[in-house]
Amino acid sequence: xxxxxxxxxxxxxxxxxxxxxxxxHRGWLAGLAEDGRLLxxxxxxxxxxxxxxxxxQDEAALNDLLKQDPFAVAGTIAGIRSTEWTPVIGILAAHAx
Length: 97
Fold this sequence. Notes:
The chain has 97 residues and is of the alpha+beta class. The chain has helices spanning 15-34, 59-68, 70-73; strands at 2-10, 38-43, 49-56, 77-84.
C-alpha cells in the first residue's frame, strides 16, 4: 500500500454548492476512513481547498476513488494535486511502506 497526499483546490464561487454536498462528501470520507483508505483529511483555513491523506494500492486506485467524491461529482474541485508521500516521523509514520 502507498500513502498519497492529495491537495484539492476548490472552484471559485463554489461555496454554496460545497455546503449543499458537504454531508455526502463527509459521509464518503468517513466510509473511506473506516476501511483504512483515508488516514486524515480537512479543509485549509482560508477555505481555498483541502488536504487529504490516503493509503491505497496505487495511483490508479487513488484516481478511481477521487472521481467518486461527491464534491468532484458536483464540480466543486478546480484542481487536484496528488503526490506519493512517505511519512517518516509522527503518528502517520507507521503507515509508510
